[in-house]
Amino acid sequence: MMIKTIEQVNEEVMELLLVADPSRGQVEGYLVNSTIFIYEDGDEIVGVIVLKQHDETYTEIMNVSVRESHRGRGIAKELMRKAVDYSRELDVNHVDIATANSSINQLALYQKSGFRITDINRNHFLNHYETPIWENGIQAKDQLVLTYEL
Question: Where are the transmembrane segments (predicted)?
Protein backbone atom coordinates (compact mmCIF):
# COMPACT_ATOMS: atom_id res chain seq x y z
CA MET A 1 0.00 0.00 0.00
CA MET A 2 1.41 3.31 -1.07
CA ILE A 3 0.51 7.00 -1.37
CA LYS A 4 1.86 8.86 -4.39
CA THR A 5 1.24 12.06 -6.34
CA ILE A 6 -0.33 11.99 -9.80
CA GLU A 7 -0.34 14.71 -12.45
CA GLN A 8 -3.38 13.66 -14.50
CA VAL A 9 -6.75 12.32 -13.36
CA ASN A 10 -7.91 9.28 -15.32
CA GLU A 11 -11.50 8.00 -15.35
CA GLU A 12 -10.82 5.57 -12.48
CA VAL A 13 -9.72 8.43 -10.23
CA MET A 14 -12.55 10.68 -11.47
CA GLU A 15 -15.10 8.00 -10.51
CA LEU A 16 -13.67 7.98 -6.98
CA LEU A 17 -13.78 11.77 -6.77
CA LEU A 18 -17.41 11.81 -7.94
CA VAL A 19 -18.39 9.54 -5.04
CA ALA A 20 -17.45 12.34 -2.63
CA ASP A 21 -18.63 15.21 -4.86
CA PRO A 22 -21.31 14.33 -7.43
CA SER A 23 -20.76 17.45 -9.56
CA ARG A 24 -18.24 16.71 -12.34
CA GLY A 25 -18.10 20.45 -13.10
CA GLN A 26 -17.19 21.30 -9.51
CA VAL A 27 -14.55 18.54 -9.42
CA GLU A 28 -12.98 19.55 -12.73
CA GLY A 29 -12.89 23.16 -11.52
CA TYR A 30 -10.92 22.48 -8.35
CA LEU A 31 -8.55 19.97 -9.93
CA VAL A 32 -6.85 22.88 -11.72
CA ASN A 33 -3.61 23.79 -9.91
CA SER A 34 -4.22 21.20 -7.19
CA THR A 35 -1.98 18.45 -5.82
CA ILE A 36 -3.54 15.00 -6.14
CA PHE A 37 -2.47 12.06 -3.98
CA ILE A 38 -3.69 8.52 -4.62
CA TYR A 39 -3.60 5.52 -2.32
CA GLU A 40 -2.75 2.29 -4.09
CA ASP A 41 -3.36 -1.26 -2.91
CA GLY A 42 -1.29 -3.32 -5.32
CA ASP A 43 -2.20 -2.04 -8.77
CA GLU A 44 -5.62 -0.77 -7.68
CA ILE A 45 -6.31 2.86 -6.79
CA VAL A 46 -8.46 2.70 -3.65
CA GLY A 47 -8.26 6.27 -2.36
CA VAL A 48 -7.67 9.82 -3.51
CA ILE A 49 -7.27 13.25 -1.94
CA VAL A 50 -7.11 16.63 -3.67
CA LEU A 51 -5.23 19.49 -1.98
CA LYS A 52 -5.30 23.07 -3.25
CA GLN A 53 -3.11 25.93 -2.03
CA HIS A 54 -5.22 29.08 -2.16
CA ASP A 55 -2.54 31.53 -1.04
CA GLU A 56 0.58 31.60 1.10
CA THR A 57 -1.43 31.15 4.31
CA TYR A 58 -3.54 28.04 3.75
CA THR A 59 -4.39 24.94 1.77
CA GLU A 60 -7.75 23.24 1.42
CA ILE A 61 -8.59 19.58 1.06
CA MET A 62 -11.06 19.76 -1.80
CA ASN A 63 -11.98 16.07 -1.98
CA VAL A 64 -11.15 12.85 -0.17
CA SER A 65 -12.63 9.55 -1.28
CA VAL A 66 -12.02 5.86 -0.57
CA ARG A 67 -13.52 2.87 -2.40
CA GLU A 68 -16.39 1.44 -0.43
CA SER A 69 -14.67 -1.98 -0.36
CA HIS A 70 -11.67 -0.41 1.41
CA ARG A 71 -13.40 1.84 3.93
CA GLY A 72 -12.81 1.39 7.64
CA ARG A 73 -9.12 0.61 7.15
CA GLY A 74 -7.71 4.06 7.98
CA ILE A 75 -7.01 4.99 4.35
CA ALA A 76 -8.82 8.35 4.50
CA LYS A 77 -7.00 9.19 7.72
CA GLU A 78 -3.63 8.37 6.09
CA LEU A 79 -4.48 10.49 3.05
CA MET A 80 -5.49 13.39 5.30
CA ARG A 81 -2.25 13.04 7.28
CA LYS A 82 -0.32 13.16 3.99
CA ALA A 83 -2.19 16.35 2.98
CA VAL A 84 -1.47 17.97 6.36
CA ASP A 85 2.22 16.97 6.22
CA TYR A 86 2.52 18.29 2.67
CA SER A 87 0.83 21.55 3.74
CA ARG A 88 3.32 21.85 6.59
CA GLU A 89 6.14 21.57 4.01
CA LEU A 90 4.51 24.46 2.11
CA ASP A 91 4.80 26.49 5.34
CA VAL A 92 1.14 27.49 5.43
CA ASN A 93 -0.72 28.35 8.65
CA HIS A 94 -3.67 25.99 8.35
CA VAL A 95 -5.52 23.40 6.29
CA ASP A 96 -9.26 23.69 5.65
CA ILE A 97 -11.75 21.04 4.63
CA ALA A 98 -15.46 21.55 3.96
CA THR A 99 -18.33 19.10 4.04
CA ALA A 100 -22.10 18.98 4.19
CA ASN A 101 -24.20 19.12 7.33
CA SER A 102 -25.46 15.66 6.33
CA SER A 103 -21.99 14.06 6.13
CA ILE A 104 -22.03 12.58 9.63
CA ASN A 105 -19.22 10.03 9.11
CA GLN A 106 -16.96 12.59 7.46
CA LEU A 107 -17.53 15.11 10.25
CA ALA A 108 -16.51 12.48 12.80
CA LEU A 109 -13.40 11.51 10.80
CA TYR A 110 -12.26 15.10 10.31
CA GLN A 111 -12.67 15.98 13.98
CA LYS A 112 -10.88 12.79 15.08
CA SER A 113 -8.07 13.84 12.73
CA GLY A 114 -7.62 17.18 14.53
CA PHE A 115 -9.84 19.48 12.46
CA ARG A 116 -12.25 21.87 14.24
CA ILE A 117 -15.43 23.46 12.89
CA THR A 118 -14.65 27.10 12.14
CA ASP A 119 -17.39 28.29 9.79
CA ILE A 120 -20.81 27.45 8.33
CA ASN A 121 -21.84 28.50 4.83
CA ARG A 122 -25.62 28.44 5.00
CA ASN A 123 -27.52 27.04 1.99
CA HIS A 124 -24.29 26.26 0.11
CA PHE A 125 -25.56 22.98 -1.32
CA LEU A 126 -28.95 24.46 -2.17
CA ASN A 127 -27.27 27.30 -4.10
CA HIS A 128 -24.44 25.42 -5.84
CA TYR A 129 -25.84 22.00 -6.78
CA GLU A 130 -28.70 21.45 -9.21
CA THR A 131 -29.78 18.11 -7.76
CA PRO A 132 -30.57 17.77 -4.05
CA ILE A 133 -28.03 15.68 -2.12
CA TRP A 134 -29.22 13.34 0.62
CA GLU A 135 -27.02 11.45 3.09
CA ASN A 136 -28.02 9.56 6.21
CA GLY A 137 -31.64 10.62 5.62
CA ILE A 138 -30.61 14.30 5.86
CA GLN A 139 -30.61 16.80 2.99
CA ALA A 140 -27.28 18.53 2.42
CA LYS A 141 -28.03 22.22 2.83
CA ASP A 142 -25.19 23.89 4.73
CA GLN A 143 -21.45 23.56 4.23
CA LEU A 144 -19.37 23.18 7.39
CA VAL A 145 -15.76 24.35 7.20
CA LEU A 146 -13.24 22.65 9.47
CA THR A 147 -9.68 23.85 10.07
CA TYR A 148 -6.46 22.15 11.13
CA GLU A 149 -4.02 24.68 12.59
CA LEU A 150 -0.36 24.06 11.76
Answer: none
Q: Any alpha helices (H) in 72-114, and if so which ranges?
A: 75-89, 104-112
The DSSP secondary-structure symbol of 56 reads S
pLDDT in tens, 11-42: 999 999 999 999 999 999 999 999 999 999 99
Residues 61-86 have pLDDT tens digits of 999 999 999 999 999 999 999 999 99
**Boundaries of domain holding 101:** 2-149
Q: How many domains does the chain have?
A: 1
- In the chain, where does DSSP find H-type helix? 11-20, 24-31, 75-89, 104-112, 124-128
pTM to 2 decimal places: 0.94
Beta bridge partners of 61: 51, 97
The CATH number of residue 40's host domain is 3.40.630.30
Q: What is the DSSP string of 124-135?
A: HHHHH-SS--EE
